[in-house]
Specification:
With 296 residues, this protein is α/β, with parallel strands linked by helices. It has eight helices and 16 strands. It folds into two domains: 2-168 and 205-291, Rossmann fold, CATH 3.40.50.150; 169-204, no CATH class. Bound molecules: S-adenosylmethionine.
């Protein structure tokens, strides 16, 4: 196991990165202080060998990041199950797991994860729309991915009032219902529920639903934008920022056991959370180290 100490940069906590199979490395982490949030973005069983992209977005010749071929869905699930169980054992009582998959395996993986965490632990799912458009011909194009959410204990951290979990009211609703203004000019509506009056401000917005279409994957995969590292299947920071804001606290520890280019870790560091990342691909660890400001 190779562990690296991160540079402490202003406003961020120290974190750690490890190169290796998370199945081997997680039991050691389970002995330490538990994590409040785990994001797992495993291979999707695409049957591809994913290569790193260069600065122009072209595939770099010869540099392979990771292989995503398992010999069928059953073999993929057999890989995933013990790793989810190992993840579960690192989680605190208030922790949650966000498991990111797509249509290839999410339905079978849901049943698998129900078995690992208990069916009652399932909290719901986020439908993430990367926004790349439809590509398939001769059948339905699936233009979303799914993030399954599981709680470890009876009450996961969920910051209902964080602005990241708010979205603007529909325009018609704003026009129809938010006609009143308070002394400072803020628009609001008043509703009486069970005899009690509640005030809702238009600028606070309504609670965000489970379909997220405003975190485009393009940001993470276009070399023209600063976020892109060239790592294949890199996720956008906006997606991880919403998850981390929603389901962790400033003192929380965040784990990504298949961290790829380190998106979760970079956002956790920016938000002041302690973080741990693992990846079995030396290319992933090299890219993540650079992104996170490691010097060794
Ligand atoms: C979809 S990518 C993660 C991308 C990442 N979320 C990002 O934004 O860059 C999946 C990663 O899982 C890693 N991986 C696959 N099996 C693993 C294992 N057993 N232990 C640790 N990492 C693994 C791969 O090397 C790959 O980097």
């Amino acid at each position: 196991m190779t562990r690296h100490a991160a540079l402490a940069t202003p406003g961020t906590r120290r974190g750690e990165l490890a190169l290796g199979d998370c199945l081997t490395l997680l039991p050691e982490l389970a002995q330490k202080r538990p994590f409040d949030l785990v994001y797992v973005d495993p291979p999707f069983d695409t049957r591809a060998h994913h290569g790193v992209r260069d600065g122009r977005g072209e595939r770099a010749r010869g540099e392979r990041a990771y292989r995503d071929s398992w010999g069928g869905v059953d073999a993929f699930l057999a890989m995933l199950e013990p790793r989810l169980a190992a993840v579960r054992d690192t989680m605190s009582e208030r922790a949650s797991l966000f498991l990111h998959l797509d249509h290839r395996t999410v339905h079978e993986a849901k049943v698998l994860a129900d078995g690992v965490f208990g069916r009652g632990a399932f909290q719901g799912e986020i439908v993430w729309i990367p926004g790349n458009g439809a590509r398939r011909r001769g059948g339905p194009s699936v233009t979303h991915q799914t993030i399954l959410v599981y709680a470890r204990g009876s009450q996961m951290i969920w910051n209902d009032d964080d602005p990241a979990l708010r979205e603007p009211y529909a325009e018609t609703s704003q026009r129809m219902h938010f006609g009143k203004r308070d002394a400072s000019g803020r628009q609001y509506r008043e509703r009486v529920i069970a005899g009690k009056s509640y005030r809702y401000y238009a600028d606070i917005g309504r609670r965000r639903g489970s379909v997220w279409s405003d975190c485009p994957s393009m940001r993470a995969n276009t070399p023209l934008l600063g976020e892109a590292t060239g790592y294949p299947t890199q996720k956008p920071e906006a997606l991880l920022e919403r998850i981390i804001r929603a389901a962790s606290l400033p003192e929380s520890r965040v784990l990504d056991p298949m961290c790829g280019s380190g998106t979760t870790l970079a956002v956790a560091a920016r938000l002041g959370r302690a973080w741990t990342g693992i990846d079995v691909s030396p290319v992933a660890i090299r890219i993540a180290k650079k992104r996170l400001g490691f010097t060794d």
